[in-house]
Design a protein that fits this description.
This protein has three helices and no strands. By secondary structure, it is an all-alpha fold.
């Protein structure tokens, strides 16, 4: 019975991203994070982007408490 050698292992190729694309991704993530922080943590009607009729606060109320933002 012939002895078989183990299958060769492949090394994953590293992901190479240009500096411009990296800056765009980081900038987009930062902008998204700031918008999420505003709508979940700050928006309460008086400074609401959508005015006093549409309160994002009510849509994200439970997540505000879960993240530790006081709102009452």
């Amino acid at each position: 019975m012939p002895v078989s050698s183990p299958a060769p292992t492949s090394v994953p190729t590293p992901l190479v991203v240009s500096a411009t694309k990296a800056r765009l991704w980081i900038g987009g993530a930062l902008l998204f994070g700031l918008l999420a922080y505003y709508f979940i943590g700050v928006d309460q009607g008086a400074v609401s982007v959508f005015g006093s009729d549409m309160h994002i606060h009510e849509f994200v109320h439970d997540s505000r408490h879960l993240l530790g933002f006081p709102c009452h």
